[in-house]
Structure formats: structure tokens, C-alpha cells
Amino acid sequence: MPLNLLRDFTIREQLRIQVEGTIQGVGMRPFVFQLAERCRQSGWVANTGSGLTIAIEGAPELQRQFLDGLNNPPPPATIFSLSVDRRPLENFSRFEIRSSEAEGQSAAFVLPDLAICGDCLQDLFDPAGRFYRYPFTSCSRCGPRYSIIGSLPYDRERTAMAGFALCQDCARDYRDPGNRRFHAQTIACAQCGPVLSLHDRAGNRLADGDRVLEAACGHLREGSIIAVKGIGGFQLWADAAAPVAVERLRIRKHRPAKPFALMVPGIEDAEALCFLSGLERQALASPAAPIILLKRRPNAAVTEAVAPDNTMLGVMLAYAPLHHLLLRGFGAPVVATSGNRHGEPICIDNAQALERLADIADCFLLHDRPILRPLDDSVARVINGRLTLLRRARGYVPQPILSKTILPNALAVGGHLKNTVALGHDLQMIVSPHIGDLDCDVSVRQCEATLADLRQFYQRGPKLIAHDLHEDYGASRIAEREAQRAEKPVQTVKVQHHYAHVLACMAEHGLEPPLLGVVFDGNGLGSDNTLWGGEFLRIHGRGFERFAHLRAFSLPGGEKAIREPRRAALGLLYALEPERAFERMAPHFSAAESNLLASALKKGINCPLTTSAGRLFDAAASLLGLCQVNRFEGQAAIALEQCAAAVESDLVYDFRIAGEGTCVIDWQPMIEQLLTDIPTGNHGLIARKFHNTLAAMIAAIAERAGEPAVALSGGCFQNALLVEQAAGKLKTAGFRVYCHEKIPPNDGGLSLGQLYAVKYLG
Amino acid sequence: MAHGGGGRLMQQLLDTLVRPVFRNPVLDQNHDSAVVEINGTRLAFTTDSYVVKPLFFPGGDIGKLAVCGTLNDLAMSGAKPLYLTCSLIIEEGLPAADLQRILESMQQAASEAGVLIVTGDTKTVDRGKGDGLYINTAGIGLIGEQVNVNPSAIRSGDSIIVNSDLARHGIAVMLEREGMNFEHRIESDCADLSGLVQELLQNGIEIHCLRDLTRGGLASALIELASASRYEFELGESALPVREDVRAACDILGFDPLYIANEGCFALFVPESQTEAALAVLRRHPLGQQSLAIGRVKSACSQGRVILQTPIGVGRVLDLFSGEQLPRIC
Ligand SMILES: [Fe+3]
Ligand SMILES: [Mg+2]
Ligand SMILES: [Zn+2]
Ligand SMILES: [Zn+2]
């Protein structure tokens, strides 16, 4: 920080200050204005595409005070860099907020969408105030941001609020430096701002204005499903205590078992459903307001259908004034799940929602403020004492991950499932919101639109496009098309899946090689064209070396075996004793299945080999009778974790480490002992020992590798018990351990890792 | 070799290696057979090599396949096949009785189709250098005056029709080759489709395009046509005909029937207004009794693509796979 420069400032002159940080749309200019008045400075402040520019003229002593104050802006503003130039005096008569300079590179750190603040919440329920029951109230500290910003710099005319001209009262508040809404671009009231309306499936208007809320609550009470247009898109709401309503939503959404998220108005309501730690409480109430996975109370007042056979509930707090009004009217928790059709991106547009959600929702709660880009609710979980994002979107995007060294302009397109894309330039890496699975036509288009949006928003054309080794991933196809379409030549770069996972973890912690990356994952294509997923990668300055991996086994039926843990179990047992494998698994396969799969395994037909740790979890869950066929992604692994979490134990199974060069971790002793335990043992204890053993494998390989730093990544590290065990063992042995926090350990993090890989191109 | 699956690698091999070398306007038609004009007469001309293992399978053998396959390639240009050639590459040690059976099967298929096998060649290779027998056939056929069957004739709104259920050939051959024990006997659909095509033409059906759904199955064929014609095709998943036993085998083995080879199945593109008429003609013929409209051509789109509408109303993108299908889910 150049504050020491100030010693030289003995004569009176103008200071020109450039500020970068998350400073647009957080009341930074009003703050600067008030600070300037307090320090008796004349001059001006303006948003620029790259941040904020300030000119001050006044007593040097007070200029120093001004800079001190500037360095401590009110949250959620954060300053990343601040530079000061001296200029000749221009003798300004006063301090003013100037309209924005449109030029300048768009490097400004745009804020994510912010949950309603405490002051606005009070306004909402203050019958004396002019914002009483106004569902779109916000101030310079809260409200939508990224979801409504068309382009930079952040001013009302470039946002979704452009169509709402300020009424006299709002205009007065907007200009009043003493007001919380001073220069708040989202300011609006019932006189001038967006309005609600309620519609049936055919689009017919059922209610307007304040009556919408009451009518919507009535529908919820009757067991209807309501599509609610919120901040980053639509949600589907249903009464969380009503089995009929929730089952109806399951059937219509073609989602038989995957847990639904809940929304409640306040922290006490979350407390009534779940056990909360301090960190969980803090995360729930943060401006990002993510869905947090929480341990469910046995007497939680929601129907079993919300999260069948699950010990956790996903809960979020109301984050928009509309949610507060609805929930106060309804008086009980609601299911609030993404407003999309199975596999598609979340709907953001009224007409699109009426069309695509017509078979799901009974009625539609709409408003006329456009949503410019889809932002799902983010999902997080406290893992090993840290808040870990599992799905990153609203509330977090587009906060950049900062690099310590300059990056080339590059795009990274991610993988295939849970996809995100990322853009890198200078010191910034911006990861897009969660897009969805690229099997689906609409998601592919959304992915392409997101790439275009990022490029437009940050005014950057890429020199490099990074993608996965797997050519058939939806994103790899997109990368190919992007490269063909580009005006200037663009280099495409292939990044191995699990290497990208480790790099994502390194990027978010600003780590440099060397280190040991442990990737316990589902499946990804390895450099040798086999399916990897239980990998220990030694990361060096030019790539990685596969230091060790789990012993491989077959996946009978290929992709089918990823959805059916019983097949992973069959493949695993087949590697031990082919004959016994079919005997053991006989209860879970028909004779026709056994016959065909026996030949398929023998001849290696659609039975790819994998070293995946995720499939090892699936196999164990199947052997323990927890899950034979997944009804949603990760179901078996979640069941195994929850089964294990019920038991405390330090016991481990045996395993072997073999191999010259690349070590192979042989799970055979573990599986044999596990099979011996199953008939008489406590299944919770067996599952627990399985977890402990995998953690012990990690620690044992880390010892062999001898790198002091270890990064854990891959989908399996969404498993809190596994992370706690592994990190615990590693720390005890003296390793520095890094886990994901800001970026998901699952494939949602691939794009960031691919982007970071361009730093290490040979 | 991963290039053999009818997938992207084969496409790339052809596009980057083979086509550029031979480049000429006829080859660039990029169709199952070449259409050449000789003294005002339009002929379809094609060749294909057959390397199927095993040589005999339920529903056919390599001989029948070598005749029907080439006849079908001619028929897909709207041609009436006339003459075939036959080249045999015989591995030393192939039982004479087997060869006899195969040649008779070729002759039977040819005479049923009303074509003559008029020339050929025979070579032998050392034991271990072939899989018993490879056959190459080439064929020529005559194209009627008004006939213009070509990917470039595909138009927005066209109906896409298939004449038969899908995936039988690939599954039948695999079950036989691998000695798999399955509760149902599945027979290849191997058949000569040229008669069926002639029926359509004689009944005045305006055929825009035809494609036999061989290697890579329905999906690969349609993806190629979509990108050649630069249209988006939409298929209804629930409309796709796959027999229960075939579907069961696919489910168990983890195969997608849309990508499995057929040898007696085509996709037919006709104007929407002719859909019913075409179906009526097809259904009168033994090889077309199960004919169904499975989708349609939507709007033009620069890349060309095929979208499968699932029963729950979500559009799945169909893609050519790079050789061996490795799982994409993590
Ligand atoms: Fe992965
Ligand atoms: Mg052919
Ligand atoms: Zn506020
Ligand atoms: Zn107003």
C-alpha cells in the first residue's frame, strides 16, 4: 500500500486515486462522498469500468485521513488494490459524484447478489415507512447485483432496473448522501419499481399487487406448487410439511428421491429443523445466503419426502424481500427447489417459465424486473470446520479467484456434468455460475451463452481455450466450436481431468508446485486412455506425474455401472474371484443379467477398467446393501457416509501398496475383510472402517511421496467424514493439507483448474 | 482400432486423410454411393468391404451381408441396382463347405434382388492373416429421371421415417461372436432394401433423402446427415422402435440402441405432406411393416445437430462418439 508516499505530501495538491476491488454496487461512492466531506476535501468520485477513480483536493493532513478511511470501507466492499498519483490543483469548489466513465477496461470486481440486509428487512415490515411490504426494496448494501447487471460500469441504465424511472421520493433518497439508498442503483418503491403478479398455467392473471402474496400462500396451503421468480431465476415452492404436495413435485419434476432444499425465514426456523454450529449459523445468515447441508433434528417438522432416507436437510434463509413476505404469510418452511426441468438450466424469463414449467407448477408468481443471467442457489456444507461450496452460483459469482502471477487471456470450458466455465485475465480468474449437465440441449446453449457473456462482460477475447482430455464431453465439443469460430487464432489446450481437479484446489489457495494432489473422484479420462479416479498426482512446474493410484477394476456396462452401484460391486468382486462374484451378487441381478455380464466381463465388452475411488465407494455401499441402483447422482456414496457417520471408531482394514514406479494401492485385503464382517458385523462400523481405511491409504501414499503439501480434490471429498479422517491423519503426520472451500471439489471446479493449467504449459 | 466404430475418429480420418487426396466433385457428394452420369444416364456406383465376425450369425452370413449392404448403398441414392462384383480374400484353411454356403447365400440374395454378380476376384492369404474370409462387393444401379435423393434435398419440415426396429444386427452379431448366453434369440435384420425403395419411387413418393443405418446406428447416420444438410433434426425418444429383447440386451450390456448397427433399416426423409402416403406404401412391403415416423427436420442451424426429445420433455443432444464410448459422467 503506497501510504508511505504521503510523507512527501507537504504541499497542497490533488491526489488522484485508483481503486480496485469489489466496490461497485456496495455504496462505495456514497461512502467516499461522506468521507470526503468529513475530511473537508473537494473533488469527485466516479465508477469506471475498472473500479473507482477519486480526485481529492484539501489539506494534506486530512488527505492522509481520507486514505486511511478509504482503506477500511464498510462491508461487503473489499479493496484489492489502491494507487495514488499526484496532480496539479484544479481547485474544485465541492466534492461530487460524477456519472461513470464508460471507457476503461472492465476489470471492476462486480459484486455477487446480496441477501436483503437487516435495515431493509425492518423497512419491509414497518407500516409507517414507504417500503412497507414492498417486495423489491433494497439499498446500497443489499439486493441483486450480478443477476441484473447488463454491462459495466455498474449504473442503473446498464441494469435490469433501467426501465424503472425513479419517482420523486426515490430520486430524493438516491441523491441524499445521508440516506442508506444514496446512489443505490436498485432503489425502487411501490410507486416506481417492479410489481408482482400471479398467473395460472395458461398465463391468465389471478392476482395483482399485494393480493398476490395472500393468494400465493393460499395456493401453497392447498398443496399447490408455485413457480416463484426470485433473484437469479425461478424456484419451485411447495409446502414442506405436506407429503402430498412434495410427492406431487417429485412426480412432476421427475425427481424420485434426490433431496429438496428448504427455505425458512430466519435462523431460529433453521434451528428448529436442524442442529447448527456457529459456522453454519454464520453461513446461513451471510449475504450470499447459500443452501447449507445440515444435520436434521429427529423431530424436524417437514415431511419425509423432502429428503427420503437422509440424515441431512438442505436449508437456506429467505434472501429476497419477496421470500420474507411469502414466508411470513405462509408461516412454515417451504420446499424451494430450482425452477427447471430435469437436467435443464434454471428458468429466468416469465414466458420461458410459463412454457417450460407448465407441467410442473400450478401457478406462477411473476414480476417485471428482468433477470439477466441465471444464478442457481449455491449449495455449501461445513466440512472439516470449513465452509465448502458444492455448487457455486448466486451470492458467490462473479467474485474472482486471484492469481499471484499474470495469466494470459484464456477461457476454460469445464467438463460434462455440473458444468461451469471460467475466464482468466491479468490476475483474475472468474468462474461462471453452475450451468448444469451438458447432455441436455438447453444446457449446452446456456454454456455457450455463458462463455459469450463472460467475454462481453469482461471485454476479453481468449488466446487459449482449455478443455478436458475427454473429446466427448459436451464442453470439449464447445471448445472445439469456439476455437473454430474465433476471429483470431486460438490455441486449444487439453488438461487431464484429475490434474484439473488438483489445480482448482491449488488456484483457490494460491499454491505453487511442488505438491501431492490426491484426487478421489468418479471417473475421468486418464492420460493412458483408461478411466482414472483414485489418483495421487505429484504436481511439478510443467505438469504432473502419476505417483500412485488405486488398483483398477472393471465397470460392467460402462456408464451404466456409474448409475448402478451393484455393477461396480460386481466388477470389484470379479477382480478378486470371478466365480464367487456372481454368487455373491446373485440377489441383485436377474439370470439374464448375470449370463450376459459374465460374458461381457470375460471378453471385456463395454467393461472399462477404472481406478475410481467413487466407484469403490459405490461398490462398498452395494455390498452393505445400502443402494444397488442410484436414483440420483451420488446416492450410494451419501448413504455410505451417513451410515458410517453414525459410528465412532478408529479401526481400519488392511491394504497393500505394490508396484514399481507408479504405486498401486490394492484394496483386496480391505474388501476381503469387509466381506467377512458383513454377515455378522455392525454395518455402521463396517462403513466407518471403510472410510478410515481410505484415509489411511491417503496418509500412507503421502508418506511415500514425501511432499510437505497435500491437496485433496475430486467429488469424493464432498464426503465430510472422508475429509476429516484424511486431513486429520495427514496433519498428524506433519503435512500441510489443502481442501476446497470457495470452489467445489466436484466437476464444478474443473474449469478453474483448466484455467490455472495454462500457467504450467511446458 | 478406435477408428472402426463409425464414430468421430473415422469421420476425421476420412475428412483429413482420404477425401483431400482424392478430392473431386463426385466424391464430394459425400453419399453412400457416387452418382455419375454417362451419356445422359445417371448411375449409382459404390463399393464396400465386409469383415464381419463371425461369418455366420442368426439372420444371415457374410455373403448375404456383402450383397445386401452394397445393394442398400445403391438404393440409398434412389437407384435400381443392376450388377455387382465380388472379390474374396480367403484365409488359408477356411472350410470349403463354409465358402460354398456363403457363395450360395450371395447368389440367393442377388437373385432375389434381381441383380447379377458379373465379375470378381479371388485371393488367398496365409493362415492367421485374415479372419477366415473378407468380401468386397461393388455395384452399379440406374437412377430414374425425376429422382434426386440426396442430403442436400432435405428441407425444414420433412418427416423422418424408419422402416424397421433398431439395433438388431449389431446385437445379434455380438451375441453370436462372443458366445453370449441370452434368453432370447436375436436375429440380424440383414435385408435388401432396394425393392422397398423402388416401391416408394413407383408410388410417387417424393423422397428427399435416404440413409441406411449401418455402422454407428441411427444416431451416427442422422448426425452425419444433419451436419451435411445443416439442419436440426428432432427425434421423439418414445417413438423409436426397439424390440423388447434387443432393448433388454442393450440395457444389460450398457449399450445405447441408437448407436448400434442395422443392416435392413433406413431413415427416409419425405415432405411432411407425404408422411402418411409413404408409411402406407412402406407398410404394404414385408420389410416395411413396422415403419414409423420418428422425428422431423426443424430449422436450419449452422452446425447441424440432432436432438432427442426424452419422454419427460427434455432435449438430449446426440453426438458422434470418438471410437470406444467411454463414460462421460464423473
Ligand atoms: Fe471429476
Ligand atoms: Mg456401406
Ligand atoms: Zn438493504
Ligand atoms: Zn419510487
Summed up, what is this model?
The complex is a heterodimer of chains A (762) and B (330). Chain A is an alpha/beta fold and 762 residues long. Chain A is 32% helix and 23% strand.
Structural write-up:
The complex is a heterodimer of chains A (762) and B (330). Chain A has 762 residues and is an alpha/beta fold. Chain A folds into four domains: 2-97, 2-Layer Sandwich (Alpha-Beta Plaits), CATH 3.30.70.100; 196-367, Alpha-Beta Complex (DHBP synthase), CATH 3.90.870; 400-495, Nucleotidyltransferase, domain 5 (2-Layer Sandwich); 515-749, ATPase, nucleotide binding domain (Nucleotidyltransferase, domain 5, 2-Layer Sandwich), CATH 3.30.420.40. In chain A, helix 5 crosses helix 9, helix 19 (635-645) packs across helix 21 (683-705) and helix 21 packs across helix 22 (720-732). Residues 1-9 and 102-107 of chain A have low confidence and may be disordered. Chain B folds into two domains: 31-143, 60s Ribosomal Protein L30, Chain: A; 151-318, Phosphoribosyl-aminoimidazole Synthetase, Chain A, domain 2 (Alpha-Beta Complex). A seven-stranded mixed beta sheet of chain B has the order 9-11-8-12-10-13-14, sandwiched between helices. Chain B is globular, with a radius of gyration of 19 Å. Chain B starts with 7 loop residues before the first helix and ends in a 12-residue tail after the last strand. Chain A binds chain B through residues 254, 341-344, 359, 415-417, 438-442, 444, 470-474, 477, 481, 497, 521-525, 529, 531, 555-563, 591-593, 595-600, 603, 605-606, 608, 614, 633, 715, 746-747, and chain B through 8, 174, 178-183, 248-249, 251-255, 303, 307, 312-317, 319, 321-322, 324-330.
